[in-house]
Amino acid sequence: MKETELLGQWWHPRTPDLRVGGMLELDDNGFASLTAIGGVFRDEHTIGAPRELTVEPSGRAMVLHGIAGGRPVTLIDCLSMRASATGGSFTQTVRPGAVLIGIHLDSVDQKVVRGLVVEIDNLTEWSAMRTFTPTFAEGQELTGFEFSFPDPQSVKVAGTTVTLKPCRSGSWWPESLSDGRRLCEREWVSAVFEFDTNQAWEAGVDAPSALRDLVTFATRTPCAIRSRTLLVASQDGETQRVDLKVRTKPQIRESRTTDVNDYLFDLSVTSFEEIYPSWCELAAQAKSGMDVLLSLTYDRPVYYENILFNAGAAAEAFHRELFPDARTSEFSAEQHEAIIQKIRDALTKEERSWVLPKLRNQPGLKERMLDLAGCADATAVDELVTDRETWAKWLKNARNAVAHLELARLDAIPEEPRYRLADITQDLLHLVVLARLGFDADVQRRSVREFYWYQAQQFGEAVRATIREGSGTQ
Fold first, then answer.
1. Partners of 240 in the β-ladder
2. Pick the residue with more confidence: 283 or 302?
3. What is the DSSP pairing of strand 180-182 with strand 239-246?
4. 314 vs 286: CA distance, rounded Å
5. Do 317 and 176 reside in the same domain of the chain?
6. What does the DSSP 8-state code read for residue 243?
7. Alpha helix (H) ranges present in 169-232?
8. CA angle (337 as vertex; 333, 339 as ends), nearest 5
9. Using CA atoms, how far apart are residues 57 and 55, in angstroms rounded to an integer?
10. How many whole angstroms separate alpha carbon 392 and alpha carbon 368?
11. How far apart (Å, rounded) are the C-alpha atoms in residues 261 and 268?
């Protein structure tokens, strides 16, 4: 991972004449640390700090300024980690939460951000936007390359216009070397966000999240935001570019190969104008369920029990958020509450505490799972889970066993399907999301047959064996 060192001068905005030298170290994942010789601020209890330093009682400064490499730098949410006074010299180590290179902000709430440009893992391949394409003869012999420049794709959602913009760098002419000639060309797709009104710097963190999550879901790979560049309104009315370094997950990893054949879908089978608004709407409607589902891709737990619990929690959250009015009786919520009130009035306080929790009007986990399975293509679901009743029953029992720390109850589920249950549930949620995004049965069935087939076959054999033996858990 690339690390950068910026040597410069640093100061607190309230004492701009009190500048000290120091080194700012930061990496591509936004981890930053400033070592300032002389200190930039102090709290009331810092020993050995110069008395003229600005006092921050909490030991945290929301904004610090600097000049490094000839560019202005703003450090955001700066926590004093260490301070020492030795030999008459005071040294302070500060850890900022974010670094903006190219601007001095007066406060964290200053609204000067017009937009931003980001690069996201796998966005180029997923976008299906090609600026150069190899050409082949009938015998699959490479004959050359075709160069083009596809039009950007844009869509507006909630006051923000998002544009996928193809980019290319390299040399049109080959470089002559002693051992031959070389032609280097690189293409990538950037996402440009333009806001209707100026935003604070944190928009650079929040705005790209939905697109990153969409690409992660579609490619089945944890995708990181590799770079963020804020588009900031300058005093002369022009737009200047400001590099934003901030700690977020997932962390950036070394670039690696990616294969579109491993994706659930890309933009060759849909359009950005259709899929992005649909994704944003679904992510807002099923926020908790989507967050937990994506966590199984971004940051999969080590212990299987945690994975199993999260898969069950994601499925339950999806159903609760997609069907908030689901109930187990013909009574409406108002009618049910009226019945509960009559019972409440007839019981003592001790009796109510025991009786009322049992009088719910909401479906249990098994019923919710069966409803959820009905949200996707029936053939795809049946090929994945084999028998819906058995899958829903096992998931209910497994989730409850982990949630209530009764792990011995997991043994009631045969070992082979037990260790595939989390993946099968995650895959079913993928089918539900695909259906909600408007993908037809062919796309859903393809995902089962190409990506989940082995898991489904192994799970199905165990399900059929259990049904034959009549030993399904209750």
1. 232
2. 283
3. unpaired
4. 10
5. no
6. E
7. 203-206, 209-219
8. 120
9. 6
10. 9
11. 12
State mean pLDDT over 82-105. Answer: 88
Q: Is residue 340 included in any domain, yes or no?
A: no
Spacing of C-alpha 224 from chain mean position: 8
Same-domain pairing of 122 and 81: no
First to last CA, the chain: 51
Instruction: Specify the amino acid at residue 298.
Output: Y
Please say whether the beta carbons of 69 and 99 come within 8 A. Answer: no
Residues 317 and 409 in one domain: yes
Same domain? For 368 and 227 the reply is no
DSSP secondary structure letter of residue 289: H
Domain termination site, one of 43, 70, 101: 101
Same domain, 97 and 243: no
The CA–CA distances, whole Å, from 40 to 51, 102, 104 equal: 11, 20, 16
For residue 114, what are the contacts with CB-CB under 8 A and spacing of at least 6? 194, 195, 198, 231, 232, 233, 239
Q: Which domain holds residue 253?
A: 113-262
What confidence tier does 406 reach under pLDDT thresholds 50, 70, 90? Answer: confident
Structure tokens at 246: 């901030």
**149 and 207 co-located in one domain:** yes
Same domain, 304 and 245: no
With b for 16 or more beta-carbon neighbours within 10 A and e for fewer, the 60-70 pattern comes to ebbbbbbebee
Inter-CA distances, 202 with 79, 88, 398, Å? 18, 39, 40
- E-only strand ranges, 123-238: 132-136, 142-147, 153-157, 160-170, 175-177, 180-182, 185-199, 225-233
Q: What is the pLDDT of residue 1?
A: 57
Can you give the CATH number for the domain in which 97 is found? 2.40.10
Please identify which residue in the block is written with the tokens 């849909």.
270
Structural contact between residues 359 and 337, judged by C-beta atoms closer than 8 angstroms: no
CA angle 367, 435, 270 (to 5 degrees): 170
Q: Are residues 367 and 437 in the same domain?
A: yes
pLDDT tens profile 105-150:
999 999 999 999 999 999 999 999 887 777 787 767 777 777 778 8
CA–chain centroid gap for 155, Å, is 20
Q: What is the DSSP string of 341-374?
A: HHHHHHS-HHHHHHHGGG---S--HHHHHHHHHT
- Structural domain total, the chain: 3
Question: Residue 385 contacts by C-beta under 8 Å, 6 or more apart in sequence?
Answer: 373, 391, 424, 428, 456, 459, 460, 463
Task: Choose among 73, 90, 86, 92: nearest CA to 33.
Answer: 92
Q: Name beta bridge partners: 273.
A: none
Domain assignment present for residue 185? The answer is: yes
The predicted pLDDT at position 385 comes to 95
| 358-to-323, 337, 349, 403 alpha-carbon distances in Å | 21, 14, 15, 19
| Residue 210 belongs to a domain | yes
In-domain check, residue 404: yes
